[in-house]
Every structure is written in C-alpha cells, then in structure tokens.
Amino acid sequence: MAGSRRGFGIAAAVPAEVTRAAAAEAESLGYDSFWVNDTPQGDGLAALAEAAQVTETIALGVGVIALSRRSPSSIAAQVLGQSGAADVEGDAGTSLPLHRLLLGVGSGAGGPGALARVRDGVQALREALDATIYISALGPKMCHLAGEVADGVLFNWLTPEYARRSVEWVQAGAAKAGRQTPALAAYVRVALGDDAARRLTEEGSRYARIPAYADHFRRMGVAPVDTCIAASSAEAIQEALAAWDGVLDEVVVRAITPHDTVEETLALVRAAAPLRAR
C-alpha cells in the first residue's frame, strides 16, 4: 500500500459550479477518485452526475447513501437514469457511468437491524447494478461485514493507527468468506487556513453528538479533530497526509473550507494534490 492513491471529496450540498470545478481540477491533477457525500440537503448521485459531465477518467464515488433513508431499488433507478422511479421526493434520474462509479452505502441508523440492512442492501444492489459497491464501516461488526460482501470499505473519522486495526477486522471478514480483502479507503478531513479550521472543529463537535460516532471516538480514545488535518500551507498538508502512506489503498481528502466557494475549494484541491502531479 506504499504510496496510497489519493481522492478528493466535497459535500454534495455545495453549489453545482463548485462540484464541476473541483471534479475537473482533481482529474487534471492526478487524483484517482472524486467523492461526494449524500444527505437530505445534498443529493450525492445528482452531484456525481455534475462531476461526470466535466470528467472522463476519474472514479466517481458517493460516500455514502443511507439505506435507512433510501431503498436499493430507488438508488439503482436513479443511477440508471430512470426518472420517477425513486422513492425520495425530489430525486431525479442521473444516468451515471457505471464503469467509474463507486457506490457507497451505509446502514444510516444503528441498532440490531443495521447489519442485516446493509447485507440485504448490497445483495439487492448487486442484482440491479454492475457497479463497485463500498460499505461505510465504523465498528468491528460492520468492518467484518464489509470484508465479507463489499468491493470496498470507506472509513471515516479515524486516525492512521486505528485504521490499521479496522483493516484487520475487514481482512478477518474477507478471510472468513474466502475472498480477497476489499479496497480500503478513508475520508480524511482537511482544512487549509484558520477559518477552515474553525469550521472543522464545528463539524467534529456535530459528529460527536451522533451516538454511533460518539461510541467510535470513545473506542479510539481521541477527539474528532484528532482524526483530521488543519494546516496553514500546502507543505503542511502534504506532511500530514504522509502519515497515511501504506495504511490504506486510498486516502480521500475530504474538503473543509470556510464558505464552500470555487476559489476556496480549488485552493485545497491544489494544496493536497498527489505529489506525482507536482
């Protein structure tokens, strides 16, 4: 895993011009993937469709769609561009390039039904789509499941040290199922400048109030900001990202900017660009 691949990620709720500009610049600078999240405020698949219009080769990932909010059939219908088939108000068909799509899903809600929801959801999506499917995993049980059934796993809010432990859980699940270890990736939140760092702290506090993430931070024994990178220069960002080399197959720079403008986002895309692009 030396020299891990690098992706770039933004929020799906940012303006479309930010998505297009960031995706095009990420591709030109040699990033391997471009990711968006998916929330009630921002449709991840619709944002990826914007990115697809201005790119040709970069992988397009959504990390992740909550299966407690979206059914597999509605997700598949939207991916395939079947307008009107989605079961969430406002969703429209998108027609995404399947050969570039990294389709991330997660339970979206904890409790005893979370594992079954993800297992069944992955199976249903495989039957409907020829796409690469990622699972979002925090705890050991979901990591095991990712190893058993997913093409990739997307970690979130963790340190390089804890990522190594999570990888072991995924590998154990894969070995139990007699299959190769899935691709291993993580969102690493990165902020450039003091204003972005303040927003990063606010986002960490918000996640710490979510029970599943609160448990996750307790398991690691760290505060949310300890899993992130807040730096004042491109050189400092590159130095901090180097701590992830060899830990995972891919590190996704999850952008945190003060106001989600084109200028701020492009500055971060360039500051965190793979060194081979320089």
Q: Please report the total strand number as a whole number.
A: 9
Shape: globular
Instruction: Name the assembly state.
Output: single chain
Strand ordering within the main sheet: 1-2-3-4-5-6-7-9
Unreliable residue stretches? 83-90
- The second-level CATH architecture is Alpha-Beta Barrel
Into which percent range does the helicity of residues fall? 40-55%
- What is the succession of H and E elements? EHEHEHEHEHEHEHHEHEH
In CATH, the topology is named TIM Barrel
Mean pLDDT: 93
CATH class: Alpha Beta
Number of helices: 10
| CATH homology superfamily | Luciferase-like domain
Largest sheet: 8 strands, parallel, barrel
Strand content: 15-25%
Number of domains: 1
Q: Return Rg in Å.
A: 17 Å
Structure classification: alpha/beta
Keywords: Oxidoreductase
Organism: Sphaerobacter thermophilus (strain ATCC 49802 / DSM 20745 / KCCM 41009 / NCIMB 13125 / S 6022)
Protein name: Luciferase-like domain-containing protein
Pfam families: Bac_luciferase
